[in-house]
Design goal:
The chain has 127 residues and is mainly β. Helix content is 15%, strand content 42%. It has a four-stranded mixed sheet with strand order 1-4-3-2, covered by helices on one side. Strands 5-8-7-6 form a four-stranded mixed sheet, with helices on one face. The relative contact order is 0.19.
């Protein structure tokens, strides 16, 4: 059996979270409502992101991050640019740059402050 992870992130506004991630190309695979809480499951290209609504008294800040291993970080960035995400503020989209570990990496800060880092290997001839 192989391992895989599904991060669970906090959302303060489930409907805003759904709308934002749908714009990024994710699809809503699950949405559970219980008194005082909601749970979301969003998926894109085999990557699952789970979100839970937490009462404000339990939220001390969102210090969560997810790394998305993608086939082409530049293409993903270009696709996300088309939805009009700003380069400053929240949400924020920062384009990929070459890293010393031979990856092209960028990041997206979502409306709740979650950091989505995305990257792809730089092909050998371009290193």
């Amino acid at each position: 059996m192989s391992w895989r992870a599904a991060p669970i992130l906090v959302t303060r506004d489930p409907e805003r979270t759904i709308a934002f991630y749908l714009r990024l190309g994710f699809r809503l695979r699950g949405h559970t409502r219980t008194p005082g809480s909601q749970y979301l499951l969003l998926e894109r290209d085999g990557v699952e992101l789970h979100f839970t609504e937490v009462p404000p008294e339990y939220v001390g800040g969102t210090d969560s991050a997810v790394y998305l291993h993608v086939a082409d970080a530049a293409a993903l960035h270009a696709a996300w640019q088309t939805i009009g995400l700003p380069a400053q503020g929240t949400p924020r989209l920062v384009g990929p740059t070459p890293q010393p570990w031979c990856h092209l990496e960028g990041h997206l800060l979502d409306p709740d402050g979650h950091l989505l880092r995305y990257g792809s290997p730089i092909p050998a001839p371009h290193r």
